[in-house]
Specification:
Layout: H1 11-22, E1 27-30, E2 35-38, E3 47-54, E4 71-77, H2 83-93, E5 99-104, H3 107-120, E6 126-131, H4 151-157
Parallel strand pairs: 3-4, 3-5, 5-6
Antiparallel strand pairs: 1-2, 2-4
């Protein structure tokens, strides 16, 4: 046996549902199940939103809570979240002080978060940080350069 899962098509949704069930005091589904969010938002706080491809759960969702993220958008396995997911997260978690998008330097993540920021700009104050740290040698075929794999967690906390 190589994996413990029901199917590749349902892996991300089932993982997220299990995570929410285990931590329902802190985390809830937002946008009709399209992203994870903090259950209780703090009025006047900048909404911190991050995300990335599925298959690494509870990666970003595991960092939702006090002093950390307000929302995490998860795409399908190794696929960036969609702009619509990200916009929905901004709409639900902006508590009046705008949104900060924390993005790993993968082409799809950068493209979709930028597109979401453009779509939501009429309704929200938005800033975006692209994290580019990496210990990888040489250029990556999956990104514009260093991918921000480890440093993203530190940036989310700061």
């Amino acid at each position: 046996m190589k994996r413990i899962m029901n199917s590749g098509q349902t892996l991300v949704a089932e993982s997220l549902a299990g995570f929410v069930a285990a931590h329902e005091d802190v985390v809830a589904f937002g946008g009709g199940g399209r992203f994870l969010r903090r259950r209780a938002l703090k009025p006047g706080k900048v909404a911190l939103i991050s995300g990335g491809g599925g298959g690494h759960e509870p990666l970003h969702g595991g960092f939702i809570g006090a002093g950390m993220l307000d929302a995490a958008c998860t795409g399908h396995i190794f696929t960036s979240p969609t702009p619509d997911q990200i916009v929905a997260a901004m709409d639900e978690t902006d508590a009046g002080a705008g949104c900060l998008l924390v993005v790993k330097n993968y082409d799809g993540d950068v493209m979709n978060f930028e597109m979401a920021a453009e779509m939501a700009a009429p309704r929200h104050r938005i800033e975006m940080v692209v994290v580019e740290d990496d210990a990888a040698y040489g250029p990556s075929v999956r990104s514009r350069g260093r991918r921000g794999v480890a440093g993203t967690i530190v940036v989310e906390k700061i």
